Amino acid sequence: MFCGFSSLSVFDKSATVLLYLTIGLVALIAVIGILTWVYNKERIKDFYKYAIGVGVGYSIGVIAIMAFLLFDDMVKSGEFSAQVFWPIFALFALLVAAIIGALIISLTNKRYMKLYLKISFLLIGAYLIGMLIYQLIKTYQAEFVLADELILIFSTLILIGILVSLTLVFGKKSTLDNHTKSIVYAAICIAMSFALSYIRFFRLPQGGSITFVSILPIMFYSYMFGIRKGVLAGFIYGLMQALQDPWILHPIQFLLDYPLAFSMIGLAGIFRDFPAFKKKVILQFVTGGVLIAILRYACHVITGIIIFDIYAADGFNAVAWGFFYNLFVFVDAAIAIFAGGIMLSSKAFRKQLQEVQIT
Fold this sequence. Notes:
Blueprint: H1 2-6, H2 10-39, H3 44-76, H4 82-108, H5 113-142, H6 146-170, H7 179-196, E1 200-203, E2 209-211, H8 216-225, H9 227-244, H10 251-263, H11 281-306, H12 318-325, H13 328-344, H14 347-356
Antiparallel strand pairs: 1-2
């Protein structure tokens, strides 16, 4: 057993150790919960609050560590260049620090949460813009195909602008009243989407797959808690997808194909409060599903044309191949929309959603 363990890579060794550590942590929290319930029941709400904080914080830390080790292994094996690795790792580190800080504030002094979130979003936004500018300067100095790089950067900025504009204009401002509730549901929906993404009907050779309703939990989360929180959940889910099946050739391609493309799923609930769609729940959901499919498709098509053109099949130019290859997005979305429509046709399920949903 120990001989087999010593032959594993650092990533596999860490995964094994963290598995047993996680089992131990879950057991410890369960024991503390039982003791609190039996001997000090009035503190059970405090226990739930701190258990959620510890669980989410621990999960984020584990994801960050495993992401670093996974990408580091890919750099060493030549699958992933260091020039691509470090900008992406810096983004992960910034996000982890921001989320851990938010957890600490939510458990200590919620009054400063809105200010903290605004500062965090500004810092992350500034980093992303800086990454785009740096990539453009580096490309110019290296005398690469500057026209392609400009198209990639400006297309990314346009899609980010569309996402931010839709979120700010049609998304309701968040309140802290249901903050803990929304975090718990976000964690559940992201975990469900991630688990369902392993059930694949078809997997494409350069990334992308048709799955069994993997985006549906994020879509429902957006419908229940609004598109502002939905976009954030989609962003986190996109980062997890980058860990699950990484096809990363360029920092901006990573941004488009993973966090930005999957953030679009968080717009699924955008038509929930439109007067024209009032009381037409299935129509709200289907229309939102079509919108997110189009926006996600746009993200993948841009990288398909500019970054993955070298993989174009015989008889296809880069543009035609980019549009054709990424049609899987519509099939994947159609499966989720169809399943979601069936679920929403049930009055009991709609009632359940309404009980959870933030108005």
